[in-house]
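*** Protein under study ***
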Amino acid sequence: MDSVHEKRHSALSEERISAEECREIALRIRAEIGKVIVGQHELVRDVLVCLLAEGHVLLEGVPGLGKTMLLRTLADVVSMPWSRIQFTPDLMPADIVGTQVLHESEDGARELRFRPGPITANLILADEVNRATPKTQAAMLEAMQERAVTVGGETRLLPRPFLVMATQNPIEMEGTYPLPEAQLDRFMFKSMVPFPSADELVTVAERTTGTVTPTVEAVTDGATLRTMIALTRSVPIPDHCVRHAVDLVVATHPGGENAPEAVSRYVRFGASPRGVQALTLGAKATALLDGRPNVSTDDIRAVAVPALRHRVNVGYEATADGVDADQLIDAVLDAVPIPGSGVRGAP
């Protein structure tokens, strides 16, 4: 499987696109999304970063905030097929990855043929992913990690780019199956979907209750996006920035170097090595979106909260004292020295 992925990554590098062209396309994607999605600028940026880094994003927010509309709009803007999977307790793995069905030809011959599931689209909305059973969640998350599905002993690669945007409703947890930490770790970012302001609600009402429905134009396609993804991975990152990402992850562990007192008190265990990968790739995409030629420590720190909030496992003491993962990551950012500055926290 590794050799297959290496071949596909090398194929991405055959085409070329400049950093400025990549940034212009990304800005146009964001502008088109803004025609439909009101506000949510940080959320849209997180999704774009994950798209450029070919990672997956977990969204948490109450219903009705436009999560489905966001992915549908993104699919229209980038001219790629998308699927929506509504996770329910009776959903089976075959309902996601596909299954083999018996096909009978005109001459009476019978054979098993693969019928692909909704996971075979480029963009996937996994709605209320915590409502499915662990077995079904595992099938989904295996496809996310391997970018392939195995049915009937045959492995089939999924199309690329491949982005899963999963949602969770934080206020209705009865009868749900919260994702285990090892499965949460497969999401590059966890982004919160805030409730809109009063002015934004006015705009939402105006856009959705009138006679004219906002429409978007296609900005790019899958082939160009694959080139943009390859370019994102090629953005230079200095050694001291990689080290800073490592230092931040180490500081999320109780007893780790530079770990603040709050981490030692409230955290059961900190971020995994995937946290370093998420920080690094997220920083590369951030630098590209901002039009800078290489990664800086500011880029690492800018993505620290969405990259680490779901990777920091807090104990019951944190819940009792009203301390959440975001506050602990802020404490880590304040405690870890910035390379070359000689100070802790933001300069």
Observations:
- The two ends are 44 Å apart (CA to CA).
- The first strand starts at residue 57 and ends at 60.
- The domain at 235-335 is CATH 1.10.8.80 (Helicase, Ruva Protein; domain 3).
- The chain is about 45% helix and 15% strand.
